[in-house]
Amino acid sequence: MSLLLFLALCHGCGQFSTRLALPGLRGWFPGLKKPEWHPPAWIFAKIWLLLYTLMGIAGWRLFQAGSPLLLLWGLQLFFNQLWTYLFFVRRSPGLALLDNLCLWTTLGLYLVLCWPHDRMAALLLLPEWLWIGFASCVNYATWKLNRPS
Predict the structure, then answer these.
(1) 8 A C-beta contact, residue 124 and residue 110
(2) I need a labelling partner for 39 at 20 to 30 A (CA). Which of 9, 51, 93, 142 fits?
(3) What's the Rg (C-alpha) of the chain?
């Protein structure tokens, strides 16, 4: 399987998530209270462009090596997609936060298990793990600011 296929898969997931989120991004999301340190909207597209590229390269490396860690890689891709559905379609920051914690844990496990076998494949997902840690804090603060009293 080629690198281009893995990149297309990851960026396709990103495009799917964006389209899924659009109604919520345009209607519901602007009305939410957000923490003062919430990043500006334009940052998200740039960060995810990079993260999906790194994700694709990491997945391709695992596939080339025949690594069983490709299952964990696929699980983190699934949790990424699920977050968008839970947050923007279900409009549930609380459920999305739980998903983010599952994603962050999956990525952490991936990093630990991948490191001894393919350090480059591990390092390629380190930025995502760091971003999801930050995104979980943003998600938590947003959930807390908007939950019913």
Answers:
(1) no
(2) 9
(3) 16
- For the chain, the domains span 3-14+49-146
For residues 46 and 18, is the Cβ–Cβ distance under 8 A?
Answer: no
Residue 46, number of CB atoms within 10 A of its CB: 9
pLDDT tens per residue, range 46-85? 999 999 999 999 999 999 999 999 999 999 999 999 999 9
Residue that the structure tokens 């962050």 belong to? 104
Q: Would the pTM count as exceeding 0.85? A: yes
Q: Please classify residue 36 by burial: count the beta carbons closer than 10 Å to its beta carbon, then call 0-12 exposed, 13-18 middle and 19+ buried.
A: exposed
Tell me how far apart the alpha carbons of residues 18 and 112 are, in angstroms, rounded to a whole number.
Answer: 30
Q: Are 129 and 100 in contact (CB under 8 A)?
A: no
Secondary element (H or E) of residue 31? none
Residue in the block written with tokens 């995502």: 128
